[in-house]
Specification:
By secondary structure, this protein is an alpha+beta fold. The chain has helices spanning 3-39, 47-52, 88-100, 141-177, 182-214, 226-236, 238-244, 262-278, 310-313, 325-330, 337-347, 376-412; strands spanning 57-61, 67-70, 104-111, 118-127, 133-139, 222-225, 247-252, 257-260, 285-293, 296-302, 351-357, 361-371. Helix content is 53%, strand content 20%. The strands form 2 sheets. Strands 6, 7, 8, 9, 10, 11 and 12 form a 7-stranded mixed β-sheet that branches. A 5-stranded antiparallel β-sheet has the order 2-1-5-4-3. The relative contact order is 0.09.
Length: 413
């Protein structure tokens, strides 16, 4: 073979062998990298930063269920780095997702860490690498509770409104049947008035509570004198106290001011007084005291009534909840008074506390942020506003207590 042809043939053989070696080395390198990736426990880039910024509980797990990274909120569910995922339902969700390779979401009820009551969670698992799985656990217990409260509110409201409406309808039929008996007509008419008053009171309180819950802020915010709030509340409930044989007393500090809506505060304190009077025995005393404690003003209403059991104490601020359902219905109670007190106090940046002992009585305390007394001009303007509020509240209270009295007369008849 001539030398040029031999040289060309050798060159071709060298190129083929070189290309084969390059391909073999490239293939070996890729297989090595794939093997390293398949056995790697390292977290993909960016996952750690994402976990650090998450509000939900989240974690990354290896195939054995070992947690290799977590978000801050994961500790609420006792999920910690270096530990095995303990919850069986969450482990099953992770296994199913790893076997299928498709992200999955389930709603589960699990026990969160040291908390005994089960939490409703929405858990989502996704594959983030050959050996790693991302698990996100979102606590939706509060959302479920709010949805249930909304449903209960609609149900309870319908039931509470239906009762007086049905009573009015039946009493109207009774009046028609007893048209020839003036005494019976008067009795039925008084009962209709009592039911109409109860219906009006219930509707008014539902509207007040809805306004407090729906509005982002109070309608009218200004310096409010606590002395005037207490005076207006006592004045509005004097008739109820007299008819029940209960003495109202006022004590404590004077000159305290807060910022808020005077009418809302008068209604809240008035609800505490109404409850205290309603559950106090004849001849007892209901006290209302004011105490300035640093930057706080405390308005405490104390009675000598039947008290509240420990089981009821946890629920008395719920809408339509009555510790003594029979007595509340007999005296025209709506089950909304304390709920209004709670929301009114929270809208003013405060809180409500309760102390009670069965057979000894109860003390409800509204704690509100205190402000310095305004100047003479502000005080004068505030007084005019408060006088209007006190007149409205007193008129409403007289109407409500008149309805309660009519209901009592009707029952006695």
């Amino acid at each position: 073979m001539p030398s040029p042809q031999l040289a060309l043939f050798a060159l071709v053989i060298g190129i083929v062998i070189g290309a084969g070696v390059v391909l073999l080395v490239t293939w070996a390198y890729r297989m090595r990298m794939q093997a390293i990736q398949d056995t790697s426990q390292s977290i993909p880039a960016g996952i750690t930063e994402v976990l650090a910024g998450m509000d939900d509980a989240a974690c990354v797990l290896d195939p054995s269920g070992l947690v290799v990274a977590t978000s801050r909120a994961a500790a609420r569910f006792d999920i910690r780095p270096g530990a095995v995922l303990e919850n069986g339902e969450l482990r099953r969700l992770v296994r199913d997702v790893r076997s299928s390779g498709i992200s999955g979401t389930e709603t589960l009820r699990i026990t969160a860490g040291n908390v005994l009551d089960p939490r409703l969670v929405s858990a989502r698992a996704s594959v983030v690498g050959p050996r790693l799985t991302l698990l996100i656990v979102r606590d939706v217990t509060e959302r479920e509770r709010l949805d249930q409260m909304r449903t209960d509110f609609v149900s309870n409201t319908s039931h509470e409104l239906k009762t007086p409406v049905a009573s009015v309808s039946l009493l109207a039929e009774a009046i028609e049947s007893a048209a020839d008996d003036p005494d019976q007509v008067r009795i039925f008419a008084s009962r209709i008035m009592a039911e109409a008053g109860r219906l009006g009171q219930l509707t008014g309180r539902i509207m007040s509570l809805s306004r407090l819950q729906a509005a982002e802020s109070l309608a009218q915010v200004e310096p409010v004198s606590i002395d005037e709030v207490v005076h207006a509340s006592i004045e509005a409930h004097a008739v109820q106290a007299d008819s029940a044989g209960v003495e109202l007393t006022r004590g404590g500090d004077h000159g305290a001011w807060v910022r808020g809506d005077a009418q809302v505060l008068v209604e809240a304190v008035g609800n505490l007084l109404a409850n205290a009077i309603q559950y106090s025995p004849h001849g007892s005393r209901v006290g209302i005291g004011i105490r300035v404690d640093g930057d706080l003003v405390e308005i405490a209403v104390t009675d000598q009534g039947i008290g509240i059991s420990e089981a009821d104490r946890e629920r008395i601020f719920e809408r339509f909840y009555r510790a003594d359902d029979a007595r509340s219905r007999r005296t025209g109670g709506t089950g909304l008074g304390l709920s209004i007190v709670k929301h009114a106090t929270q809208r003013h940046g405060g809180e409500v506390r309760v102390w009670s002992r069965a057979g000894k009585g109860s003390t409800f305390t509204m704690r509100l942020p205190r402000i310095d007394a305004p100047g003479a001009d502000g005080a004068g303007a505030s007084k005019k506003s408060k006088k209007k509020h006190k007149k409205k509240t007193a008129k409403r209270a007289r109407t409500d207590h008149g309805s309660v009295g009519a209901a009592r007369n009707g029952e006695n008849a």
